Amino acid sequence: MINISEQAARQIEKLKNETPDSTEASFLRVKIVPGGCSGMSYKLDFDKNAPAASDKVFEGHGTKVVVDTKSYLYIAGMTLDFEGGLNGKGFVFSNPNASKTCGCGSSFGV
Asked: What pTM value is reported for the model?
């Protein structure tokens, strides 16, 4: 399961509406890629193609998030949130599988 906070859902929809190539059917794809200071990084993209049969699809607050099977192994149980404020703003990944994270919160290790 991937949990999507209300704040994250609002920001995803806002960004989707601002992205010229996205459509109403577009969804956020979360992928894990090698890299970052802790070994693995989160990659977020809008995808307008139909999810693959093996993809995991999650919905929260009217927003769809899709994860490929391999990436899901690293982020099962994660909560995707969005925070704003004086210290900056951005998506926050609360990943119970991460044994270490970097200071910026965009990479992790298991």
From this structure: 0.86
